[in-house]
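Data availability excerpt. The first of two example chains:
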Amino acid sequence: MTNEGPRYLKDKEGYFSKEQRDRTKKRSKEMEAAVSATLKKQKNRPKAMSYFDELHKYEGARYHELKEFHDKGGKIVGTLCVMVPLELVHASGAQVIRMCSGYYEPVHPANELLGDAGLCPMVKSTLGTQMVSSNPIVDLVDMVAGPATCDGKMKLAEILEDWVPVVMMNIPRVKVGESSSKLWVKEIIHLKTKLEELTGNPIKKSTLRKEIKKWNEANQHWSELLKIRKADKPPISGRDAMLVVQATQIDRIDRWNKKMKDLLLELKKLEKKGLFAGEEGAARILLAGSPMMYPNFKIPTIIEESGGTIITDELCTGYRLMADPVIVDGMSKKEIYEALAERYFFPCSCPCFSPNDERIRRMKESIKVFGIEGVVFHTLRGCHLNNLEATKIELALREEGIPMVKLESEYDEGDIEQVRTRVEAFVEMIKARREFKLSHTAEENK
């Protein structure tokens, strides 16, 4: 909060009523429980997934662990984007949670405040969660790191200053020229200074290198999981893979590494037994577009209940969270910060950047590597940047002979059957194309 007091939040009757708080908490808890129950019903689901289920549980074990840490004086940093270097946060002795909300109910109090029905529902849900304290884990946050990617998140970070200190990170939107990389390095160093002020712990070079090593190990485990997902019949669903990688945003990374080893070992056993997470003949789908934070797994669930299997994705809440390691070429602090800046800037294919040809290049590469048959491109209502890029991406995919369907959704369940109908038609089209190719090949080989 600024010295002048709240800049956005006016004391309007109903914003903080007990009834509203209780209702939002109750419905959020029910939503998470329902989504978790759906995930647990998947066939041939690895037993090791139970750890990740508990980690994401509303008021689960991780919340109580973080609360105990916080009560003893530990600091917790909330992040709003994949571009925040978590190695740096952990090197300061703080813990991290990703604040971007996947809950539907908190959208309503934010709508009352903002009066903008067309604004991104993830932004509104994240704000609404703070307004009515509907997610206890978010109430533990001592400072927010908010990279200014899209306009919605930039203003969200500003509004959140009415509750908690925010470190805005100025992201160069243009990726060409020497000035961009220099500016981003300065932003990383500025965040480092703010973290030291928050925790009272100087970030030592040795500590930072240890954290980078842990996260690079996590990157290796994620790469192993990606190899398993390339199989004709992968033993893990796309939803579970997203649940696993999003766990890096709230868990201790050393423990995540141990649990990933357990999961990978079990998946390899399931693969040897020929156990498939999807249905026979499932269409191989790449999921792209707007971020999808748990428990907003509406689109992935519809895809995998409609005859498709999400083999990979290009989401900033999925594949891109762990897509690239930090490569430190030298031993100096300057070189370490440059390496962090490079890892969290240049590989990022967020639609906020221009030029953003890297996104199309990566998608085309994934299509070939993972044997993708079709792309589902999802946009949240109000996600203008992804809406703009969707047309460009669809045209590029046509050149590769890969069909794409674009879906737009809100944070509610009102459009489920409409989306399901479109996804089912898309999956059937993919299967028909597959059958045609097989029959055509067979005719040519006669």
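And the second chain:
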Amino acid sequence: MKDGETEMLRAENEALRAEVEQLKNELIRLVSRNLTLSERLEEDLEMRRRTDVARELLKGNIERQRNADLQDDAQLMALIELRVEQENPHLDADFDAAALARLLGISQERLARLFRHQTIHRSADAYIDNLRVLTALRMLREKPMYTIAAVAEESGLRNIRTLQRRVQEVVGMTPVEYRLLFTRDL
């Protein structure tokens, strides 16, 4: 191979590396943008649910919402979200569907039926797991000094392996890679 060809191949290789780096940066930007948009959507949906709950409360249905035998699934879901938001029981690794049913004063069967028919979650346990993953993602973004083990423990995910598996399933990257998206420029 001639020196000229070698130099040409090196230059081409360098150009390809630069293009790969540019594509990587664009991917990171797009993932970050998608996460931001997802968070905004989640916040909008949460605000709508809160508004609906507030309307119900203003209509004088507060006693009905406290009733353990609520018949209206939408109100029961709103009550679940309020209790979870206020008390954060999902941060306890031992909190499960049975504990949620006890917290609300309803049967496990009623809770299972509610999640089967009224939510995008397969079960109350899937809902609780989702809350834990969202908490872990928030902690990875907002608490860069926390160890991965601390994030796993404080988010209720029990251990690092579970945190790694769930974050990989949800965002397609490891917790460390996810954190680097937000701490890269710090």
